[in-house]
Structure formats: C-alpha cells, structure tokens
Amino acid sequence: IAWSSGTTFVGNLHLPDDTYVYLSWMRQAAEGRLTFLNRFTTDPQPSGLFNALFLLLGSVSRFTGLPGIAVFQLARVGLAFGFLMAAHRLLRRLLPTVEARRAAFLLLCFSAGLGWLFPRTFGHSPTDLWQVESNTFLSLYMNPLFAAALWLMVLIFERLLAVRETGRWRPAMAAGVAGLLLANIHSYDILIVWAVWATFLTSLLIARLEVKRAEVTAAALLILQPLPAVAAQWAFYQTNPLFHARALVPTPSPALVWSLLGLGLLVPLAIYGAGTAWRATPERRSSILFLISWGIVALALPYAPVAFQRKLAMGVHLPWAMLAGWGLSAWAGRNRSPLVERRIIAGVVALSSLTLFRWGMRAAQNVQNNWCEGDARLFLRPEEREAATWLSQHGRHEATLAAPLQFGGIAGYLPGLSGVFTYAGHWGETPEYARKVKETLAFYSARSSDDQRTAFLRRTGTRFVLWTPAIRETASLIGGGAADLTRMPGLEAVYTAGEGADAVTVFRAR
Questions:
Q1: DSSP string covering 373-430, please?
Q2: Residues whose CB falls within 8 Å of the CB of residue 262, separated by 6 or more in sequence, listed in order
Q3: What's the sign of the alpha-carbon dihedral 64, 70, 72, 76?
Q4: Helical segments of 65-143, H only
Q5: Residue 483: helix, strand or coil by DSSP?
Q6: How far apart are CA 3 and CA 463, in angstroms?
C-alpha cells in the first residue's frame, strides 16, 4: 500500500531519527564540507565535527551520484562483512577447535537474550529488546557506524593478540591505526578497548603468566596512536557548546539484571566454557583470560559514573558469545556423535535467537502502522517529499520550522533530505529539545498571536515554515485549533504541493 500510493520510505525500519543524523553528515560531505555542523538546531555554532567515516561515505555519494541512503546501506553491508571476516580471524587465534569456533561464530552472529519472554519497555526490559549496541546482529542490522566500530574493535584485539603470539610489536602498528580511526568515528569505544587491554595485562600478572616486552610496546602504541583523535574530540567538546550539550545528554544504563537477561543463555554457557577450558587447555589460559577480561569490562563499564553510560555498551555481546561458543561446543560434544553435537548447537543457537525474530515481526508491524520505535513515520507522503525537494533547491542551509517527528512531522528528516537547519529536529542533537518542541507546537496553534509568532521567527532566525497535514491535525488535538498562517503578516506562501487537506505549503518569512 505504501509503495503503490507514491510514498517514500525513509530507509530504516527502526530508529530512523538517528539514521538521519548520519545522512545529514553525509549530505554535508557531498556538499564539499570537511567538518559537519549540527543542522538539528538553529543555535549558533562556532565549528564543525570531523568524522572520517561519514566524510568518506558522503564523498562516495558526491562522486558516484548515488543517493545518500543507498551509500549508507551499501556501506552497512560491506562493513558488516568486514567485521565477520575479522571476527573469524580473532576466533582462530582464541579458540582451540573448529567446533568451538563454529559454535562461537554462530552465537556471535545470531544469538540474543531472553527479551522474547518480556514486554518491551525502554530501559526496563532485557537489553536485546531495545539497546542495539549490546547485540552483534542488531548493530550490523542498523547502521554502518556500529558495523565499523565493531570491525575496528575486533581488528584491534586480533592484532594485539598477534603481538602476544609472535613476540613482535609490529602488528600493534595496525592496531594503533585502527584505534585512531575508532577514536574519531565513535570515540566512546576507544575507552572500552583501553580498559579491556589494561585489564587483560593485569590479569596476566595476577595469574603469573608472562607479559612479553612486545606487549608493553603494543600497549604504549595503542595509547599513543589514537591520542590525536581523542585530543581533537576533547578540544571540540570544550569549545563547541552544542557538542558539549549533546555529549551530556543522559543515556543511563538499565539495571544490571536487564543487561544479563539481554545476554540470556550466553551467560551460563560462557561461565561453563571458561571453567571447562581453564582446566582442559592450560596452554590456552591467556586466551581465556583475555575473553574473561573483555567480558567483565564490557559488562561493567556501562555503569561508570558518566552521563553517556549506555554508549559504552558497544560490543558487550562479543566476548560472551565467544566464551559461550567454547562452552556450548564442550557440552554438546561430550560423549556424543558429531551429528548429535551439531544438532544441539543448532538448537541452542535457534533458541537464543528468538528475540531477533521478534525484531523482524516488529519491523513488519512498523511497516503496517507507518510508525516505529523512534516515534517517527517510516513513509513520507508524496507532498512532503516534494516540499523537501523544493527546500533542497531553494532553502538549503536556511533555518526551517517543521513539526517534530513524534507529532507526525518531518523536522528530523529535513537536514538529511534538504540540507536545512531545523529548530527542533532530534531528541539528542537539539539542545533543550523538550522546550523547543513546546515552542514549535505553540507557533502552529491558534492560541498564539501573530505578534508572538513574529517574535519567535525573529528570535530563532527562521527563514522557512513548513505547514503539513500532520501539524494541522496535531494543533487541533492539543487544543485551540490550528493557526491560519496564510493570514499572518510577514509570511509568504512560496510553494505548495498537493491540494485540499493533503496540501503541504512552504512559507517564507519576509
């Protein structure tokens, strides 16, 4: 129905509000910018953010002529494949048998937690129901940023473990370069890498296992090489008030029980695997210590006393899945034929992936309802898309007022679609978002006077105002009815798409 009626799919079945932050950066790169402004606010900003990943993707869109969303999805698939290859190499270094690697790889790709047994409540249910970063499959499913971050994390650890195996420090150079990229594109994750490697080296000393000189050199390179990116992000944080406010938007972690339930069967399997492997393969104890160190840090770090707790959960699923694969293989293979062992592994993997099927069912429901978890529509009306196209040609880089996504509007999509600045565009990117949403709704309401609306336009520097069926309906529902902007002095209708109740009008503030 959606396609046949001429509507436009926004490109993501879940959380498209975040997708359009990335598409806004890509659009700016396609325009030729090296650094990216926050176009989800009309507040003044002194400088732009540099992100190598989206600079590259936007440049690809610019030189190939492909739409940004097409490059976005192609990059997601390509980076996911790169991650899977790197994960396979890491498993070969860590796990002793083909069976253990196979079980671990399957759990890595397809397992989730026990969320399928619970109702979905953001922050108060198992994390596999709502926290994308905590699950491998969902991270690869959602966007290229998470796929790239996972790839770089796994690549770093694989190269560092190569240092331990060979006794040479040169593989650490590649780990340091990967760390530099990681610190730039998703800065939080370099903190995870540093904490994991420091914990691992400490655990080797506690267990009285050898720490080679090359590993000390590797640790130094892992700190020094990413430092330029870390310093640049810190300087940007200190000098750009918008980025400062964005970084301090609270993203608290849930209660620990929800994180453990989000891992589900991986927890008992990983504990069994660690215990069994420690006794059965003493020559692999450094590998076991590495996975244990990673698993503990990944689970504990999101509870550090910082505002961005939940953003430190990237890759928490990985070490638990690897240890669980070790345990599952050991348990399934005890006095059993290879055929029975494979069936047990397949059954456990299928059982642990039920939450992912629930995500698939939710995606189908989102399509039917034209509404998703990010409180946004998945399909835009033809008139809305035409108005966005007009703005991209005549209003690019101008401050534009539109209804927020959670009220059926398209404000959060316009920076990616049209290259404009919006007043209340994104819950995390827009400073004081709740207040600005209220002011936006007040502007469209008949309860406000023309003088109040004029003062708002002057104060915010708004150049264009988008008037859509969604905001007319919302203004009526909240009381007072919708304002008649056609009669407002200082507003001029410059473009209209559609007719009657479906019409979308763009006004220019004189």
A1: TTS--SEE-HHHHHHHHHHHHHSTTSEEE---GGGT--TTTHHHHT--EESS--TTTS
A2: 112, 113, 114, 115, 126, 127, 128, 129, 131, 134, 135
A3: negative
A4: 68-94, 98-110, 136-142
A5: coil
A6: 32
Q: How many residues are there in the chain?
A: 510
The reported pLDDT for the residue numbered 479 is 66
Measured distance between the N- and C-terminal CA atoms of the chain, rounded to whole angstroms: 40
CA nearest neighbour of 148 among 78, 59, 197, 66: 78
Q: Is 507 helix (H, G, I), strand (E, B) or coil?
A: strand
- Structural tokens at position 119: 């109702």
Provide the token pair at 486: 């056609």
Q: At what angle do helices 144-166 and 52-64 cross, to 10 degrees?
A: 120
pTM of the model: 0.94
68-94 and 52-64 helices cross at what angle (nearest 10)? 130
Give the integer Cα–Cα distance in Å for 376 and 115: 23
Q: What Cα–Cα distance (Å) separates residue 471 from each residue in 41, 114, 116, 380?
A: 19, 39, 36, 14
CB-based burial label for 35 (10 Å; 0-12, 13-18, 19+): middle
Paired strand residues for 49: 36
Cβ-based neighbours of 231, under 8 Å, separated by 6 or more: none
Q: Please report the pLDDT score of residue 246 as a whole number.
A: 86
Q: Rounded distance, CA 41 to CA 243, Å?
A: 11
| Residue 487 one-letter amino acid | R
pLDDT for residue 501: 84
What is the enclosing helix (H) or strand (E) of 176? helix 171-185
d(CA 91, CA 100): 9
Nearest to 401 by CA among 257, 486, 300, 509: 509
pLDDT at 3: 47
Contact between 10 and 20 (Cβ < 8 Å): yes
DSSP structural state of residue 306: S
Mean pLDDT by 10 residues, the chain (510 residues): 69 94 98 96 92 98 96 98 97 94 97 96 95 96 97 97 92 96 97 97 93 92 96 94 89 96 97 93 92 97 95 97 96 85 94 96 94 90 95 95 94 97 95 94 92 95 94 75 89 94 92
* Dist. CA 161–CA 156, nearest whole Å: 9
Give burial (CB, 10 Å; 0-12/13-18/19+) of 458.
exposed
Q: Are strands 421-422 and 464-467 parallel, antiparallel or unpaired?
A: unpaired
